[in-house]
Amino acid sequence: MGLLTGLLFGVIVGIGLVAGWCFAMRCRSKQRIAKAANIKLLGKMSQDEVKKLLYDAFPPWVIFPEFERVKWMNKQLEKVWPYVAGAAQEIIRESVEPVLEQYRPIGISSLKFDKLSLGRLPPQIEGIRIQTLKPGQITMDMDFRWNGDASIILGIQTLVGASLPVQLKNLKFFATIRVIFQLSENIPCISAVVVALLAKPKPEVKYTLKVIGGSLTGVPGLADMIKDLVEDAITDQLEWPHRRVIPIGGLPVDISDLELKLQGRLTVGVIKANSLKNMEMFGRSDPYVVAYVRPLFKFKTKVVNNNLNPEWNEEFNFDIEDHETQLLTLQVYDEDVGQKDALLGIVSYRVAKLLPEETKEEVLDLLPSLDKMNVRDKKDRGTITVRLKYHVYTPEEQKAAMEMEKKFLEEKQKAKEAGMIGSTMDAVGGGLTKAGKFVGKTVSTPFGGGGSRKAKSPAHENGIVR
Fold first, then answer.
1. Which of 82, 187, 416, 423 has the fewest CB neighbours in a 10 Å radius?
2. Is the pLDDT score of 434 beyond 80?
3. pTM here?
4. Domain definitions of the chain by residue range
């Protein structure tokens, strides 16, 4: 009797365990199917949608990779780098030395490469993003990193005749490079290549300077000169929308669609500033404003002496090449006789905020630096008030503006050769200096109901806006 009872109890317990296990597996399967459906739905959501869904619970380590890893390309680049470096050195020398001459700062009569070697360590391409933005073109964005062993010596000749060999050591370069391939029906199926550096993330160049047989302290301001030269040259020559267009295949091709064209004119009225920081031990600062979209086309206002709430009421015009990406930069300086002018504040403004033919008056907060990560002095720098208007060029206006821009640069180069300005990077305007009278073409014109000076940009000729 006991045996039968035990067997019966065992059977019942066994059936119960099997039934419980089957039920648990069925529930688990349903949960997994539901979770898979949720993950599939989550995978279709954008980064912004996921952040909005999770709100504060969004973990900072979650990323949405946009670039595809290309380890195979880095392996091949490592093999061919000795040959690429040898060819690139001559190309860099031929193309960069004219740029160095164009952006050569005041106080330096000659700036050339005494030695240029790209070293043995190749750059690394961390990732590639391929997209098709226009028919007949392939756009490739490359996350470029180079921490190489380049050996570069700049031969600097000063105006007093001193020769300074300056070595650039520990050169590091980080940027996102945009390469656009113009497709063709003829072999090699590519008619031209466009190369540019994307503005975001900001291209970064790091290096250390050493004067061979001397010290940097023996040449005051030399390190800052070279730093400004590198930044201005990269921004003005290679940073998008500026680019290099390279024909491929040796056959004549039409690359006019790839070249940079002027889109419109930005009119900037520099009205006044308020509550500027005083940089003087005795008295007050003597502020003036430098305004530019491209560093090569800088204009400056008159100097208002001994005033922390100056009024300028001056108007400048700038050609715009890319309405969506370009920035207007405003720098407020304190004029110091006999030494470098002190920066009172700086601010940038996106041209994309302006609609065509719309006039806006903006009060902008001045910052110690545009590089917010390295700002130490976070005290209030005051504000600057500007009036802005964007005008889209017609085809006729575009052609005339491009001709005037070319003429403007030629005049600045002549002024530099004549010793009227120290560099083609010098700011023009105000009619207060010899350079302003020669290059700035300042004329008197009413602005904002009061007297002012209107400095003509390349978009102007004979006082008439084209």
1. 187
2. no
3. 0.66
4. 71-247, 264-465
